[in-house]
Design brief:
two-stranded antiparallel ribbon, 117 residues, mainly alpha, 12% strand, 5 helices
Length: 117
Amino acid sequence: MYTFYYVSKRFKKIQVKNMSTTVTTRIDESLLHEVDQLSLQKQMDRATFLRNIIKHGVQEEKRKNALEKYKRREYSLQKCASLLNISVLEMIDLLERESLFLDYTKDELREDLQGLL
């Protein structure tokens, strides 16, 4: 989706227009059949169902990536929470659900406290 911003000279007003982008891909007939079955169960058209699946898939990949980087100590707790658009408390809950150790150093605490100010 592209977002275009322009200012009207007459009204000095910013307007936002979102434009969707078409994406084309090939999938197996059996997968297409499953997509159609699930979209019928959800009472959605195929395109809407696929958009929802892609959106959820991207969110899941972001979550996995953030958790992996956290485990390797590449991202702090605050950075992971920020990338996932959740609070630090929600991030701690996510770590608990994923059975991950809360690895929190003094430097990370300092970084997080600076982020709050």
